[in-house]
Design a protein that fits this description.
single chain, alpha/beta, Rossmann fold, 2 domains, eight-stranded mixed beta sheet, 13 strands, 15% strand, globular
């Protein structure tokens, strides 16, 4: 998203990168299976769901159902895909595909999703819906769909008045898997497996990318890493993907940025904080940021003040690369005026197939419409 027809990286003073699924690529098939299993284990062991509802055979059968850009209607138990005007172009109830007539019974003859205006204004989750917009959420789509179908079955085949209790269980499962405390405590399934076998889940950053970053800095560009991941996990990941001296390749590093809040005007007063030797957030930063040092929190306005001091310029131009529309692409441009570049691994599917699954019953196609 740029204000010009032509994009030239030489036009920018600072080039910023997200970490997960941008600077560092995950081995998605392996990671998806791990995420799926961790969530299922929580639901079965902590919430007493039937183990037969969730199994790896079901995962293999329905894995193509999981994708970014769809929305879970928490009240109706539907997954919907929208066009740019908020019209529902694909719909399932649980895992079951809904035809045009059934979809209209949910959303009216025009099939306009009633919360579309809220979505446009917030670009964030709100009461009544859940956006599946990143790779950490994709594998749980089929789990959520199977939960809906199991709930209907136990309700004599009738739809529930709301599926919010199921959604709450899902959020609890995800919180255990990805909470920052789980990494340090070695709990939740995901982080323990990740630590034991990083090479199974993470790709090393290609030398060509490393050389490119270094060439940008050599040409006088400021290179920044701004990630939502906490310091301990980010350091662990980057040390494996880039090497023990990884901080030397980034002029500025921000962890736990809490995007999109990092780009939100109401967070202008939120200070950057230092990290102590254990990676814990400690004292507030009173001055501008120091190069090659890991900080947390903060905001884009204070970050730009550091850039101006560092470059000696009154105004700086920033471009930011990231994979999340909700956190990395729309907010920096819309709220702060940074240009953005969307990193879409889905485009690799045009040439590379992650798997061969003849049993796939995918309802959604990432590039096509249903009605």
């Amino acid at each position: 998203m740029t204000s010009n027809d032509l994009f030239c990286i030489n036009d920018y003073d600072c080039i910023g990168f997200d970490m997960d699924h941008t600077m560092v690529q995950y081995k998605l098939p392996n990671t998806f299976r791990l995420q799926y299993q961790c969530v299922v284990d929580f639901l079965v062991n902590e919430k007493s769901y039937c183990p037969k509802t969730f199994n790896m055979e079901n995962y293999e059968k329905f894995e193509d159902f999981s994708q970014r850009g769809i929305i879970f209607d928490i009240v109706k138990g539907n997954f919907v895909k929208l066009d740019k005007n908020g019209v529902v172009v694909s719909c399932t109830h649980g895992m079951r595909e809904c035809g045009a007539e059934e979809t209209m019974s949910y959303y009216g003859e025009d099939r306009v999703w009633p919360l579309f205006q809220t979505l446009k204004e917030k670009v964030y989750n709100a009461e009544g819906y859940w956006i599946i917009e990143n790779f950490f959420l994709m594998p749980v789509c089929s789990i959520m769909g199977q939960m809906v179908e199991e709930a209907d079955k136990r309700n004599d085949g009738k739809h529930l008045s709301t599926y919010k209790p199921l959604y709450v269980h899902m959020i609890e499962a995800l919180a255990l898997s990805f909470d920052n405390k789980s990494f340090r405590k070695d709990i939740g399934g995901f982080f323990p497996a990740f630590k034991r076998n990083q090479e199974k889940y993470i790709k090393k950053i290609p030398q060509s990318v490393v050389d490119w970053i270094r060439s940008l800095r050599k040409a006088g560009k400021v290179v920044a890493l701004i990630t939502d991941s906490y310091t301990d996990f980010a350091s662990h990941l980057m040390e494996y993907a880039l090497g023990p001296d990884w901080t030397n390749d980034f002029d500025f590093i921000v962890t736990h940025a809490n995007k999109p809040n990092f780009f939100t005007p109401s967070y202008k007063d939120r200070c950057f904080v230092n990290n102590d030797a254990n990676g814990d957030e400690s004292t507030e930063v009173k001055d501008t940021l120091k190069p090659h040092t890991i900080y947390s929190l903060g905001n884009a306005w204070k970050f730009e003040e550091t850039l101006k001091a560092y470059t000696g310029k009154d105004e700086v131009k920033v471009v930011y690369f990231g994979d999340s529309m909700k956190s990395d692409v729309f907010p920096p441009k819309h709220l702060k005026g940074w240009d953005t570049v969307a990193v879409l691994e889905e485009l690799e599917a045009e040439e590379v197939h992650f798997h061969k699954n003849n049993q796939s019953v995918c309802t959604f196609s990432f590039f096509s419409l249903r009605y």
